[in-house]
């Protein structure tokens, strides 16, 4: 174990308390190993300038540029002093400002023609991009002492630019890396030698030195190739071990029973299944017929028929003597699933009741807000086996709920459920039940292999006939207020044509603590000074202003379940013209007559969430309209995101864009909270081949040596990736 210890050394020991504290608090770096894995984001060549035209707004950046001019301005009747410096790179300009006592040193040093590295946060002032009070480091040798030292400090011509923070510039991080870099020689190599040699990858210590202090661009490429493989392989081994363990678990096989409920149900279907539904059903039925638990992810766009596929799987399990449970994230959705399942099944859902089919079963609903008597009856139906299908919220997970023989768990909208909850429900079976996870968020193949790598994936990519197109437009409320007025006119026109509309806001209002669910600005963007727009306020403004005279109602997560249901029922029945709501409408609400949606502060929602919301309109025969209202600056990443959503209806394409714009580590961190280190060089989007190859290698290694006894270094790397709780998390799946 001695070899690992150098990587576990606390940074405080080598760098001093103050620097170590900033690294821990702002960059989450605590040990020598953490810092050695904090790779440069990119590299600048000393002689070359950064493109100033492409700087992202509101982000902390490091640029190499040349001073074009500098002048001191007086204000406040000569009492205040401001230094304005203009940088140039030949293509664009960037303004720097220094105030007060901070003017003296830069005024002396930042002379026209000088070159330096500057770091600061990009903001807009008077429609110009600027950095206020940036830190800088000179890169030319005008001032012999300091500049020569700076040039020497950065060995070679490539300057590493590190992910930095306001409290610690890239070049101070580079100095800290110099201090710990000798420890790279003690890195434990997780890749089996045969794999490393077979793929021509450089040894790990060498890769670490090359990525931090490259002499050439080839050094960077070789280092990245190697580190990419480490990340992909270690993660895929963790997932492969997880899948291997699943194949060792026993489960009751639930094979099809000819002449049972499933056949009776299929005979009543008024349409034929799409090819996609048939293919996916075959995959699921095949899994159900085996004696170890199915773990399958079923993904498909809103309206692609996932519920029908899941229902047929549930019927097969009931035919085979088991029970099926469907878990929904909200009461509204659980009730809606219960309604649509009982409607689809007709008399088959009335097993044991007068007029019910003799082949049928009971379909019960179980939610937290049910009355005592109804709840008691539902619990009784489950424990006796009278009810073959139960649909509910996390109320299904409580200890009081007992099943006769739970054979299949269907989880709707994976990202709303904690793993502990999924696990608690699974522990209710005599043996581990089969598991089917459904999501309407399209997930690119590589992400499915990485994030949901412990699940096999089925994709429904055909939309049933009859869905109407949806037109989407960005409404820049700040630059062009008349566009917003036109948006409300469009809503009124839709209503006058006999249709209905949604208006979505990120926040409930009445000084609620936080935006409901995820209506927060995306990572790396500061929230505007004002809070996000709220349902209660917008509803009031619309009723008094542009939509006066229309029937407007509100809907949000803090309302009583009965009130929510009442509003939704009346909206579905056409008794409400405009529904002003939070994202509670994001999943499962189906009102074919709703044709328009206006999303306020749209930049505060994620790409896939906007896509989900938009899927609520255009569900009938009339075309849908989605207007994305935003005050974000035209050049901001937020506006780029919105334009991407407006430009395509392809959910898979949008999920790629979403990933490219967010750091992928965040995606993995949220979905796979079993993995501690976010991905650093592996790009889930671009490195599909590496991930697929790593998955194959991982499966081979784990099949031959499930406990990795012959690969102690790989075990060590796994332990570093998965701490104890997270190892358990993966074990629970």
UniProtKB/TrEMBL annotation:
UniProt KW NAD keyword: no
Keywords of the record: ATP-binding, DNA damage, DNA recombination, DNA repair, DNA-binding, Helicase, Hydrolase, Isomerase, Nucleotide-binding
Enzyme Commission number, as recorded: 5.6.2.4
Catalysed conversion reaction: ATP + H2O = ADP + phosphate + H(+); Couples ATP hydrolysis with the unwinding of duplex DNA by translocating in the 3'-5' direction
Any coiled-coil regions, as ranges: none
A Pfam short name: RecG_dom3_C
Region (Disordered): 507-531
GO molecular function: DNA helicase activity; hydrolase activity
Domain Helicase C-terminal: 483-660
InterPro entries attached to this UniProt entry: ATP-dep_DNA_helicase_RecG, DEAD/DEAH_box_helicase_dom, Helicase_ATP-bd, Helicase_C-like, NA-bd_OB-fold, NA-bd_OB_tRNA, P-loop_NTPase, RecG/Mfd
Domain Helicase ATP-binding residues, every copy: 287-460
Lineage top rank: taxon: Bacteria
SMART domains given in the database record: DEXDc, HELICc
The protein's role, per its UniProt record: Plays a critical role in recombination and DNA repair. Helps process Holliday junction intermediates to mature products by catalyzing branch migration. Has replication fork regression activity, unwinds stalled or blocked replication forks to make a HJ that can be resolved. Has a DNA unwinding activity characteristic of a DNA helicase with 3'-5' polarity.
Family in the record: Belongs to the helicase family. RecG subfamily.
PANTHER family, per database record: ATP-DEPENDENT DNA HELICASE HOMOLOG RECG, CHLOROPLASTIC
Full protein name: ATP-dependent DNA helicase RecG
